[in-house]
Amino acid sequence: MTSPLTQFRPERVPATSLRDLAAQLHLTPAGDPCVVDSPASSPTSTPASSPASTDVPVTGVTVASDAVVPGDVFVGVPGFTAHGARFAPAAVAAGAVAVVTDAAGAALLPADLGAPVLLHDDPRAVAGVLADVVYGGPSDRLTTVGVTGTNGKTTTTYFVEAALRAGLGTSALMGTVELRIGDQGVESPRTTVEAPALHRLMAVALERGVTNLTTEVSSHAIALHRLAGVRFDVVAFTNLQRDHLDFHGDMESYFAVKASLFAPGQAARGVVVVDDEWGRRLAATSPIPVASLATHLDAPDAERADWRVVSADIGLDGVGSTFDLRGPDGAVHTAFSPLPGLVNVSNAATAIVVAVSAGVPIDVAIDAVARVTAIPGRMERVVERGQGLALCIVDYAHTPDALVYALEAVRPITPGRLVLVLGSDGDRDQGKRPMLGEIAARLADVVVVTDENPRSEVPGTIRAAILDGAREVRPDLTDVVEIEAGRAAALRHAMDLTREGDTVIVTGKGHEPTQEIAGVFHRYNDRDVYLEHARTLLRDRA
Ligand SMILES: CC(=O)N[C@H]1[C@@H](OP(=O)(O)OP(=O)(O)OC[C@H]2O[C@@H](n3ccc(=O)[nH]c3=O)[C@H](O)[C@@H]2O)O[C@H](CO)[C@@H](O)[C@@H]1O[C@H](C)C(=O)N[C@@H](C)C(=O)N[C@H](CCC(=O)O)C(=O)O
Ligand SMILES: Nc1ncnc2c1ncn2[C@@H]1O[C@H](COP(=O)(O)OP(=O)(O)OP(=O)(O)O)[C@@H](O)[C@H]1O
């Protein structure tokens, strides 16, 4: 499937000579023993193609053969499932003018590839650096912000983007929900795109008069070098909570990956939320200058933070919260989070401090954040309370901590019963499933257990693990319902149970436009189901 990303290609890229690129990035022509300067780069075979020393003009970089346009260098990376070099013939057929890969990749290339081959020990790492050079160092010509952390990235980036747009002009935003340049947005293939795509998007942004870019930075992206060659003005860390242990192994490794974003050459300065021990560690050890921010009123050592939320009124109308933020100079600024719950006070405060660090006047940042309207799938109010209908919210919480925060945010705005619909992802961290079930049974009044993205797993097995957790709190599963007929049926069931004073919250999928079941992506969105069933209920009750 061709990614929506392919729509974004810069129109004018001055050609860079392949020979210059090779010299600058220490790429060694395959099969030319005279110029091999790194032992690990030694080719095991000599893919004969056009001579390795051939010079060609390069106008693009990609790691995906189906995204190649004429003039690109195709980087064949060693993947988890295949070596990208296997797709070099397809890339060359599509117009790739050269291939960069490692020795193992070179060994896979056919003799008649028809394009020069250059070697590097770590093709993933060099792909971004290549793209930075070929696309003219776009991150240096934009004000760039990267936001990392387990939870709050999407929300915080929307807040930051609003503040940068207000203070610095036309903006670009990249993350889990969308890729947006100025007014043009497309569905995002992932939280952080591949490095060449990121540099390419920045080059397009510059052509369109954009002055600033805010991107979410996932831990996968850092580990897989998707930020290579990007020099951020400001990076931010929101928090670290249990997630992605299937990929990182343990929390220490997960933290080390996140912390590596805070490195000279990668970012000039940082903003670190010090509410959890991980943030405090990062602030204490960061090799780049950071501003610390305490957003929980009772965070240890909060008074030592550079910035601090000193009071917060979470508001009971379910819309947002007013809070006071004290800056390093002691001045206290009153600000507003337009989304409910204390976590969004944290996200709004982070965004304000990030924007200030990026050069936006604080009053402009505060005003812009206060005006942000709904963020898709983040505490999104889809059906308002009234006409006999409950308040219906979609939220992306899919980690234990996020689920606690989401339920705690919704409880005060729920005069009646709090009904939670949840599942958990297949082929991902299995340990969190009973934890989610336990939290659900402890903090919601009614729990409807359903499917999220079962992927290759048997859906009933995932639900059973959630129910096991729920049993720890409610041994006889009182008011805990398992719905086997699919997520839409579960949502409808939850809405059928409710009255006007109740709240339904469905967690886990947020904005996602598809549901992945047994390798097939079905079009599905929680929001659409809510709206359709609300119409049915209103009609039936009329
Ligand atoms: C675990 C992970 O991150 N995997 C990434 C990894 O895949 P891989 O190594 O398995 O790739 P592969 O299929 O072996 O292919 C190797 C190379 O051949 C290329 N190829 C492959 C097939 C083809 O026809 N032509 C072609 O050129 C691929 O583009 C790739 O460069 O390298 C690929 C590109 O180089 C990524 O697309 C892929 O992300 C996959 C799609 C993915 O789902 N990643 C998720 C886990 C992810 O990154 N998630 C985070 C957010 C996490 C969160 O916070 O929830 C994100 O940033 O989105
Ligand atoms: N600062 C925060 N701390 C803890 N939980 C949060 C925070 N902000 C949001 N959440 C919860 O986490 C969920 C995900 O929020 P958001 O999408 O902003 O984070 P994210 O980091 O982008 O997540 P992901 O990487 O999974 O896309 C929200 O729906 C909310 O329930």
Automatic annotation (TrEMBL):
UDP-N-acetyl-alpha-D-muramoyl-L-alanyl-D-glutamate binds at S65, T191, T192, S218, R226. Residues 32-56 are annotated as: Disordered. It holds the Pfam family Mur_ligase_M. The modification N6-carboxylysine is found at K258. The keyword Cell cycle applies. It comes from Serinibacter arcticus. Its main location: cytoplasm. GO terms for biological process: cell division; cell wall organization; peptidoglycan biosynthetic process; regulation of cell shape. ATP binds at G149, T150, N151, G152, K153, T154, T155. It is found in: Cytoplasm. Carboxylation is probably crucial for Mg(2+) binding and, consequently, for the gamma-phosphate positioning of ATP. GO terms for molecular function: acid-amino acid ligase activity; ATP binding; magnesium ion binding. It is an enzyme of class 6 (ligase). Catalyzes the addition of an amino acid to the nucleotide precursor UDP-N-acetylmuramoyl-L-alanyl-D-glutamate (UMAG) in the biosynthesis of bacterial cell-wall peptidoglycan. The gene is murE. This is UDP-N-acetylmuramyl-tripeptide synthetase. Its EC number is 6.3.2.-. Its cofactor is Mg(2+). Residues 377-510 form the Mur ligase C-terminal domain. Residues 58-105 form the Mur ligase N-terminal catalytic domain. One of its GO terms (cellular component) is cytoplasm. Pathway: Cell wall biogenesis; peptidoglycan biosynthesis. Keywords: ATP-binding, Cell cycle, Cell division, Cell shape, Cell wall biogenesis/degradation, Cytoplasm, Ligase, Magnesium, Nucleotide-binding, Peptidoglycan synthesis.
